[in-house]
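User: Here's a chain of 199 residues. Predict its fold as tokens.
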Amino acid sequence: MTHAASRKRGYDRISWALRVKNSQLTLRKAVAADVPILRALIEKSVRELQAEDYTARQLELALLKVYGVDSQLIEDGTYFVVEAEELVVACGGWSKRKTLYGGDVWAGREDSLLDPKKDAAKIRAFFVHPEWVRRGIGGMILEACESAAKAAGFRRLEMGATLTGVEFYRVKGYAELEKLAVPLGDGEELPIVRMAKEI
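Assistant: Prediction complete.
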């Protein structure tokens, strides 16, 4: 189904009626046709917004081996994009699967399903275009993810937060559980923080 066709069918489109730069922000589920746009958005977001917390070498290796689009989230219907006048300015989602972090390129994926009665759903792959940060867009996506995970029966959420994202999630009620180091090869690691929240 094309992106345009998905809209005509009312593909879970939610209008948030927020005005930013005179643009109405709209949150909807991501579709396969979004993947090329998401790849470009993720690379720009990572290179510009995470540069103060990681070295250029860490970021390039992370883009090569960890970060990226997770097509399983799109297939599951648990990944969202935010548009401003049809321009995708952010993305993020949640997962009912065991993988804590990493896109399709990440070798450490574990796509088996979680048990909502005992497992925590995962908050996954939040990226915002550098020109659209600090406008409440990340919070918009997080609220949608939390609501959807709760509706699916989950009562806990967790994530592998980048150092750049820790403060944002802390403000949203997530607690730090442990520091992790994602192996990138060539002697490099990507420090992240596992965080969690009851919902």
